[in-house]
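User:
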Amino acid sequence: MDAKKSRTILLIGYCIPYVFLCLYGDAVWGTGLVYGAAAVAVTGLCVFACKMQQIKFVVLGNIISFAVSELCILLFALEKFNYYFKPFSAHVLVGICTVIGIMIQAYLISRLTDDRKRAKDLLKNRQEKNGSRSFWGK
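Assistant: Predicted structure:
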């Protein structure tokens, strides 16, 4: 997949207000399952960004998702559920959830990029050990 398509997929994926959907689902339907579904979706986007080497779009995407979540709170009047989110308001909780999500994604990115670097180093060491032959020995 080329870089332009992967960037488009990432931006569209991050335009979904994941944190708003979590809060809305929790307040209206009374279920926390939406948090798990959103975590899986955001983790998938993060892994896809790492595989396509588009890590800067993870940061941009989180900013977009945060802004869209804040806008949805205003449009759908989620403030009326502030009693449900005590001691926080819906706006504060969006910020907290976004920061937690960014921290998890940063850890995931560091692990995935370390694994890629270790694989490249291993391949390079094997090539040097085999006298500049390819990895498969041909």
